[in-house]
Amino acid sequence: MAIVTEFYEKFREGESLEAKYTPEVIIFDEEGEVDAFAAEFVIDQVAKKEDSVLTLPTGNTPLGMYENLVQAYNFGQVDFSNVTAFNLDEYYPMDPNSEDSYYSYMRKNLFDHVPVKEWHILNGGADDPEKEAQRYADLLSVHQPIDLAILGLGPKTTCHLAFNERGSQVDSRTRFVTLDPETIGVNSQLFVNPNEIRTGALTQGIADILDAEKILLLAKGVGKAWGVNRTLKGPVSSDAPSSYLRLHPNVTIALDKAAASYL
Ligand code: GLP
Fold first, then answer.
1. pLDDT digits (tens, 9 = 90+) for 42-56
2. What is the number of other CB atoms lying within 10 angstroms of the CB of residue 4?
3. CA Rg, the chain, in Å?
4. Which of 32, 66, 123, 216 is paired with 42 by a 20 to 30 Å CA distance?
5. In this structure, which residue's CA is closest to atom 2 in ligand 1?
């Protein structure tokens, strides 16, 4: 998307980034309303363009959205058979068949229930993470622009998007990354055995995310309140990768009351 590329050039020339757009922020009383809104957002997108290309998140936040999407599919309210989906990230190293992998998460919560045209995810079991990142970057570039990227927000003060932790640059692309200690602490609790948490991951870059035509960021719970506030206020800078969303002209942020409580 040309509009964002201009920022990559400024950044490379050493200029500080200025927020250019204000995301639309929608606050719901209940978590379930965020889930329903997010599912409706996806259904509308696919209704408007049946061969939509979507970027999909993992984590606790989108579970309700996926549940609503599976239900809508079962009721014949949406057809994903022409949709292409790309996941944001995957732990590395990670056997895709492990219960802890994002591959397993996506199978369990969406793709075992809903057929799509194509689904792509970074392979945590690949021998060479650099080569795997390049394979995925090449695949993504063939499908750009993504029509809709759905994102969650990193825990605590990380403000990460996918696994773009603090320090990630605006023009970053798909790559191997080392996880932030705060991410490791929170995400280990989602592992069957918390001691098996990984310290590394493969992730789409900030530029891959900002290349999408439209972005939907979801956040629920008071644990995201600090990050939501920092996403929207303060400088657009690498100490809060989610602040880069203010460089994009078409961002919607759906929150429950708790996540919006520091705004
Ligand atoms: C994880 C994922 C992100 C996700 C975020 C939020 O670390 N890599 O893509 O959006 O953290 O997770 P949760 O929804 O569980 O809070």
1. 999 999 999 999 999
2. 20
3. 17
4. 123
5. 162
